[in-house]
Batch of 2 targets.
Target 1
Amino acid sequence: MSKITVKVGLASCGIAAGAMEVFEFLKQHQQQNGADFSLTRTACIGMCFEEPIVELSGGDLGRISLGKVEPDQILDYIEDYSQGRRPEANIILTEKRDGSRDNLLGEQTRIVLRNCGVIDPKSIDDYEAHGGYTALKKAMAMSAEEVVGMVKASGLRGRGGAGFPTGLKWSFAAQAKGAKKYVICNADEGDPGAFMDRSTLEGDPHNVIEGMIIGAYAMGADEGYIYCRAEYPMAIKHLRLAIADAQRKGYLGRKILGTNFYFTLHIKEGAGAFVCGEETALMQSIEGKRGMPVIRPPFPAESGLWGCPTNINNVETWANISWIINHGADEFRKIGTEKSPGTKVFALAGKIAGSGLIEVPMGISLRDIIYKVGGGMKTERPFKAVQMGGPSGGCIPASLLDTTVDYDSINATGAIMGSGGMVVMDSSTCMVDVARFFLNFTQNESCGKCTFCRIGTRRMLEILTRITEGQGTMEDIDKLQDLATNIIKGSLCGLGQTAPNPVLTTLRYFKDEYLAHIQEKRCPAGVCTLLLKYEIIPESCIGCTACARVCPTNCISGKVKQAHVIDQDLCIHCGACYKACKFNAIRKG
Amino acid sequence: MEKDFSQLDTILQAYQAKPGILIPLLQEVQNLLGYLSKDAMRYIAEKMHIPVADIYGVATFYSMFKLKPQGRHIIRVCKGTACHVSDADGIKDALRTALRLQKDEDTTMDMKFTLVEVACLGCCSLAPVIMIDDTTFGKLTPEAIPKILERFAFGEEK
């Protein structure tokens, strides 16, 4: 019998869930008892809710993935597997696709993530064994114009959010005159609730690098930067290693593949500023300045980094390139819709059962993503909205769940495709609070250059805070609308132009919640603390005094073994009594 | 100049006369000193011939740069969307209570911990999440906080 391979998923999400303990345990076991299996690592297959994930292969059962693995169980599973028995574990994937939960990956189409959770991201040999760097060879056998033409023909649109046609962008940079040109990979994934780029870079760094080398060849660039958030230490580590390995193998540096083509690649760590995801701000930041956007035109393709023609694409865009070169534009166009070909990676999070990373063909409906791919809601509470596009996006309500995922349909709802964050919300989420949350974020992250963005977002935040505290008036709604319109008009970059979106979409689809806060001084979701009222239900209270003991304002009175009462005038709505009560005798509402 | 910053000279030497170096340079200085004091920024300005206003401008623009001394362990509370809807505020309150932080304080009296809020740690499927130094803790409840802090407070983990 061939040797069993045990593969442990060691991406950030896996490690946070305890995968390193499993890996270390197996390593120690191997050292002490000799190796009857080979132990390897991979990154994230996307099913973060099942972490830690261990994949067994090489036995009669074929590949089989186990979820929520604990160190003390794993040896039994390996034993079972090597005897040809199905381990009595939480099986999440089988090669034969007969596991009941197999459809989690079955609904997906994987281009960008094809190697994630499959290969060892720290091994260039493994990447090559899975077809890595063949696209580069193929591209370099073509002329630069042909490569640009192929990307154009594929219809690929920028995956950073705006959806600008990538091939067209490349052709501008290719035609630009200049002795020196740059290509940049935007990995400053700043949207809260999005982790596509982190997973891609952690799981398959060479794929992004290969895309960039092909792009540099097509546009005539000789230097490139990957601008990555410092909050992603593992992604940066894997990238550094991948760049060194690619250099060693002759894919980067001088005389690439024996030709005169020359290309070097650097990593630039971000220093924590959301606005640096905007391309002109990002270049300012690489130049070592405050990351403030500058007026376009001139566009980066003409005058970008240090005044040279520059092309910037997002991680996911670059990660599509090698597949397109290898399979051709026509194959790519077969996936997705006519105007939005290909796939899109989404980070599912929030109140959804199958949170994690998914890649689906464009044109799929939101309903299918949430209920088929994502496995439905996490709890019994009903679906309320899905937030797309982070602080620049909006909340899409249940009535629009049949919207298909493509740039134009999503834009029509008032949200945006964005980079791919998808946060699912249920009835326990207050939409006014969500709007306030995002405004708080954009207000903090506004660079301050444009007055409307700097001060306007601040005023909007104040109004929203007022509403969540029960001090809102009906006039406030008009003021919000008015400010939103002017901020969109009066801002230079995408941050300001999209900052009001979370407010505008919640006002459009969830106006009744705003009205409940303003007119009835009530938060229907039970989130806004100051609007909550805590009351003791006399029939359920046994007089244990637990609530009275934790109350910080001593506003709960009552004798032992008798029903207690909360003095509403003194209550500060902290909820301590609600948490302390073990008899469900306190009503929150 | 009141304090002696000559320990920075090796770092500054390495960056001399290169373009676009200010951010990595400040990062390295901060790694060495723990934070960027006004005196340190003045020293860099003088040695590197960069206006002190430019340095201060960059240091205050990016959230990574700290202008005050930091605790030995940095606790990052994720305030991303997924964490926000999973009661990240409750986690933050539990941390503040456990660390006995008053009003605007973010560092404990004994300089052991500094509490910061960050936009998103990218582990949304494990919400709510905090990160202490390089270790991520997910699927938290306020009740779980004191036990996690204990592991760091008594030096079990560096």
Target 2
Amino acid sequence: MNISVKGNKLALILRRNANNKAIRLPDYGITAASPVETPPLPPNVALPILQQYGEACKAIVKKGDIVLGGQKIADSEDFNATPLHASLSGEVTGMVKIIDPATGRPVDAIVITSDGEDKCIEYKAAANPESISKADMISMVREAGIIGNETDANPAHIRLSPPGKTDAVIINASQCEPYLTTNTRLMSEKPKEMLTGINIINRILSPSIIYIAIDSTRMDITDNLMRYIKHSGADYLKIVLLEQIYPYAAEGNLVNIIFGENTKPGVALFDASTVLAINDAVINSKPFIEKTVTLAGSVSKAANLRVRIGTPISHIIDYCGGIKDAADKIIINGLLSGSTVYDQSFPVTKETNSIILGHNVTSEEGDCIRCGKCIEICPARLSPTLLAAYAKAGRYNECKEAYVDNCFECGACSYICPSNIPILQYLRVAKSELGKKVAM
Amino acid sequence: MTMPDVNQPDAPEMRFSVSSGPHRRSRLSARRMMHLTLLALMLPSAAAIYFFGYFALSIIAVSVITALATEYLAKRMRGKPFVMDGSAIVIGLLLALLMPPTIPLWMVAIGAFTAIAIVKEAFGGMGHYIFNPALGGAAFMYACFPAEMTNWIEPMGFSSDKVSTAAPLSEAFAANTDKMAMFLGNTSGTIGETSALLILVAGIALVILKVIDWRIPLSFLTTAFLFSAILGADPVFHLLGGSLMLGAFFLATDWVTSPLTHKGKLIFGFGAGILLVLMRLYGDVPEGIAYSILLMNAFTPLIDRFIKPKPFGFKKVVDNNA
């Protein structure tokens, strides 16, 4: 369906997921209109040195060192790894082990105690950004240590150096889960920086078209963006309006919605926040030390916040007035596909997009009543109920034959299941058991 | 404030719950779906009581109470907890609606006992049985009490005069009954099947509430309508007569005994429609609905085996770079 907004010539496309394999979640976009705030600096930060891609970085500072904000504190020879920077100035006070919320594994983290002055290394703004070569731009992006799309956490420089040709780039300014509003906010607050960032991506990957995916319930941000796009004369840009259904913003689903299932174009997906970080890295040579997160749920004031990486979650919660309604669960990165941490002093990492405070709800697992609702909504078109039954019985090989590997863990099946079967959890068990077999 | 350290597990910080996602679930639950079904069944039950008075009331009461008692006993014997999930009430009520008004009540009790004890619980209870329990109980009664199961009277409300009448779907019945009476329910038949209108309203409400899928009733009714027309019978008569409406919306759509996939559901309805018309036109049974759906229940595992969703990305791919 082609629609145009206020007679604008740029085509806006709104396409449903081809087979409507998705669920409608309630819209909790309560922070959609709250501008991004910057809370005061935390007393200390913890920066995990193992990220999800590549080798663990080696710390290049030691206990007692005085570091400046933006100074590199860990790096690795491995191209796939991303370097780590001090997110504020102060003294390195040691190493602690924290639990990585995404993987649940303990990782080492460097702790820096703030001196409260927030001194930074000198950021050199590029004199002539148009003249920087492609390879230099990629290495600048790697040097800045940018990580994190909403749906997976691979480094930006790897996305910028794909093995094949890139036909299209999708900039995700929508949100894949309820409560999250950072992409939308950034797109509406910083359209100029956003377009410079998109231009850099365009120069590196030279795709034939770039789509900006926007949530159709957040249409208000398009007007401003359109003006900038028109002004910049970037005719390769197209805005795609997405229906608010889950999990459309997952990469596979986005590609399916925009291109249809029968084509497999080379597509690179970037979140709006990543685009902004790329812009900072290339234009200002500023490393990735800040992250915009949404804090919502049972908290006194829901907000979008620009915080230093490594800031303890408790610091952010305190800034927003503390926990409300005796919430007993901290959910990182989304109600459906997110994970939980047991301690509120764990830090915001490069992958963190949102912190939602909620309540633990336990429900008893019933027998499958074979209603078929999970099959109806599975975006990977699997049969979750059968996979869960196999996994429950320990028949992992049958899970593999039924394509359990195609599951991208959106959790829609567990969400919809009327018998409260934790289908996603069963599938995760099956996947990890199968992974162990491969490793042996 | 200190940084956490997993090596010091007894840190004084407050601990939060940890669990695997998703952290929010839909409000839909099996129990809620059962309760909605029960609510929808109130319409045909009300019609039953309106048309057949005390007969209907006592049949419904005996059937539901026996079903609940049997479920309680079966759960006790199996060592499982008894939960009021509504399934026993729904099965008891559906069985009652399939009874002719003059049936002796002790036969209803035997039917309800069979439905729950043998067809439902002996196969493993909710989610595991392979035949629709209400229909299983009814089929058992057709075999045991053929005369009592086909003893028809005119609707008479709460008065006590029984006027015998022709069997539904028979030629004499067709000659005496107009379509409007069949649609509204003022005709002979089992206590719950007579009012096509109220069953239709209740069924469509359940479809809108997403408790049942529209595919089975639609393909079942369409197939029965078209196939009876092809074979030269009056399609509207067959659509409104007998238990087809009740069967298509409330018996064939039982989640446990119908296929999982959309395509499978269409096939299920199609097969049931064909079998029903064949049994009605050429069979010796009084009413084909129970056997046609039970036969398709038997085919459900086979349908599920062959009709599976194709995983995403397994369609033929046109490679742009080739």
